[in-house]
Amino acid sequence: MPGSAVTSSPDTNLRVALDLGTSFSGHVICHTGDKDKKLEAFYKWTDQPNSTQYCKTHTALFYEEFDTEGGGTEWRATHWGWSALKSLHLHLHLAVTAPSLYDPS
């Protein structure tokens, strides 16, 4: 977790639960070596609107095309979750509002 300090010791055990859904995905972490065994969910995702507090992010990937050294191209996932939706909206907005300026490559 960002901002959390995790120390390593023989008594430290970490359990992670992943929920990879078709619309939303999230995770929960539990430090079983701690007395409290408190579950920690992640609520602030990259590019998530400030007004939104939710333990899951969108299950979305945004791919971009890149030139390869051999002269071809390949597609790479460049954004995940909220960032993927933000990139998609930007590309769609440019394609519609300024088609002569829009170059998706």
Q: What can be said about this structure in brief?
A:
This protein has one helix spanning 82-97; strands at 14-20, 24-31, 39-41, 56-58, 61-67, 73-80.
Task: Write the SSE topology.
Elements (H helix, E strand, L loop, with lengths): L13 E7 L3 E8 L7 E3 L14 E3 L2 E7 L5 E8 L1 H16 L8
Antiparallel strand pairs: 1-2, 2-3, 2-4, 5-6
Annotation field: number of helices: 1
Instruction: Please tell me how large the radius of gyration is.
Output: 19 Å
The overall pLDDT, averaged over residues, is 82
Distance between the termini: 35 Å
Shape type: elongated
How many domains?
Answer: 2
Biggest sheet overview: 4 strands, antiparallel
Strand content: 25-35%
Given the helix and strand composition, which structural class is it?
Answer: alpha+beta
Which regions contain 5 or more consecutive residues with pLDDT less than 50?
A: none
Give the total of beta strands: 6
Portion of residues within helices: 10-25%
H/E series: EEEEEEH
Mind explaining what this structure looks like?
This protein folds into two domains: 14-58, no CATH class; 61-97, no CATH class. The chain is elongated. Strand 1 and strand 2 form a beta hairpin. It is 15% helix and 34% strand. It contains one helix and six strands. Strands 1, 2, 3 and 4 form a four-stranded antiparallel beta sheet that branches. Strands 5-6 form a two-stranded antiparallel ribbon. The chain has 105 residues and is of the alpha+beta class. It starts with 13 loop residues before the first strand and ends in an 8-residue tail after the last helix. The model has no long low-confidence stretch (mean pLDDT 82).
